[in-house]
Amino acid sequence: MSKDPADIQHEERIVWTEDIDGFDYVRESLTTEAGTRARPVPWRGSGRRVGYSVLKSDATSNDLTGKFTRRIFWVKARDRSERPNGVYKTAAPSEGVDPQTVAPGVWGEPTERAWGSPLPIAAARAGRFHQGRLSDGRPHALDAWRVTTDDAHAAARVADLLGGRTQPNEGGGSLAHEVLTTRESVRVLVDGPDAVAAHMRLWGSKGMVHECDGSEFLSPEEKKGQPCGCPPLLEDRRLAAREGRGPTPSIDLTFRIAAAPMLGEFHFTTGSWQFATQFSDLMVALERVGGPAVCDLTMELVVFTTKTGMGVCYRKPVVTVLGSPDTVAQEPLPKAAPTLAAAPSDPSSLFPEPRRAPEHTTLPVPEPTCSVSVDAALLSRAAQVLGTSNHQETVIAALSKAVAGQQQATDLTQLREHVERIATIARQALQGGDSSFT
């Protein structure tokens, strides 16, 4: 929530309906649909209201005729005031503020009292998660999460938790540091459905020309709440977007890393249509938990063959809701390190972001006698010779599956021979002076 001083400038007093001495923190929200300046503001969300603001008698209504902008203070069943030894014993939700810092016309602030421990650095926003990065000005998809942040301490902690190392951010975005982690799946804490925001946006040469939630306009103000005209079916919306007639998804997920929630909030933004198809199920699952939810944020590998026989693979973002922090086991061990792959030729399929990776990738194996090493750069060049869109990741995925499944030695030998044939083709092309490979 944006804390604009203008939104609360007409407040005259704060009414607490419960004794605030019993609350280390309360949740602070803003409503633009209050029907009066002074009467109690109804609360229709989860939890219960514990306070609200009262406006001055001359306060003007907002753009909705007869409606006023007022603050509401509330708590959920899992908050510290209700469950002192629960999930917020030493932490606070993103909208949590110390009620002792609240005053008419003054936004509440988090404090050590509210947090239950020393305040984390950059608690409001620690950084961002990405599925890719820019390399030599071109986008490249990643096999593992990339994290960017302005906080050197947070970057170092992320590297400790998720693998990789900190380095100056040269892969796109304005944040100073980046970590190319070794994790394709990260266990996170999501504070309910309010932590996920979904918009549909269409951009033109002069900026954004359409913003809606799929049924009503979200902006500009004069159109807010009016029908947006988008097709009811998601597949029809996708077709309109592909033809340049309609908006595309913009979904923002706010979360904390489960192993280190005090680092603060991270964000992940995606334009994936496949993620958009799962949005309703995600909201239902988060609502069912009824509080902070433990989730796995995963870059799931998708491999398939087109009707023309071309192999295609990419990674789609998936959020799996596991349950409340009281019932979910510890996070699983790290998975494979990231490798470089060419961006898909069809930009309308998904929105993979760029990535950077080690030149060589050694696949993890269960037995020391079965180690398989793959030259990722050479396979990428071979894929270009063969005319496939992403042959490198297909071969690596096949090897990984065979090794992880403890296939017979004969199967591994055949796979190695297949890789060697690809390498031979690439070498021949290079010896022939094909400049496109250099």
The percent range for strand residues is 25-35%
Proportion of residues in helical segments:
10-25%
- What is the straight-line distance between the termini? 49 Å
Using only CA atoms, what is the Rg?
Answer: 25 Å
- Contiguous uncertain segments of 5+ residues: 334-375, 382-394, 396-411, 433-438
Query: What best-fitting shape do the alpha-carbon axes yield?
Result: globular
Number of strands: 19
Which structural class is indicated by helix and strand composition?
A: alpha+beta
Quote the average pLDDT: 77
Q: How many individual helices?
A: 8
Largest sheet: 12 strands, mixed
H/E element order: EEEEEHEEHEEEEEEHEEHHEEEEHHH
Plain-language structure description:
With 438 residues, the protein is an alpha+beta fold. Helix content is 20%, strand content 31%. It is built from eight helices and 19 strands. Strands 6, 7, 8, 9, 10, 11, 12, 13, 14, 15, 16 and 17 form a twelve-stranded mixed β-sheet that branches. A five-stranded antiparallel β-sheet has the order 1-3-4-2-5, with no helix packed on it. Strand 12 and strand 13 form a beta hairpin. Helix 6 crosses helix 7 and helix 7 runs antiparallel to helix 8.
